Amino acid sequence: MKRRELFSGFDTVAPGACLDTSDGNRCLANLIPNALFRTHENEEVRFYDDVLKGKTVMVMMMYTTCETACPAATQRMVEIHRRYLADRMGKDLFLCNITLKPHEDDPAALAAYAKEHGALLPGWTFLTGDRYDVDTLRYTFFSHDHIGIDLDESAHAGMIKIINEPLGRWLHADAFVSTRTLLEHIEWAKPLGSYEEELQKNIRLQQQIDADVEKHGYRRTV
Amino acid sequence: MPILWLGAAPFGAAPAQHHEHHDHAGAAVDLPDECAAAAHGRDASPNVRHFMILAARRGVFYDGGGPSAVVLIAVDETAGETLTGAVGLYADEAGGFRFGAVPRAVYDPLVGAPEDGDSVMLRLELSPAQYDDVLGVLSTWERRAREGALLYRGDLLMNQILMLKQATEAAARCGREIDLYALDWGIEDRISEDNPRSLVPFLFFAELKARNERLHVLDERMPRAALSLLVSSSGGQ
Question: Which CATH entry fits the domain spanning A24-191: 3.40.30.10, 3.40.50.920, 3.20.20.370, 3.30.300.30?
Answer without folding.
Answer: 3.40.30.10
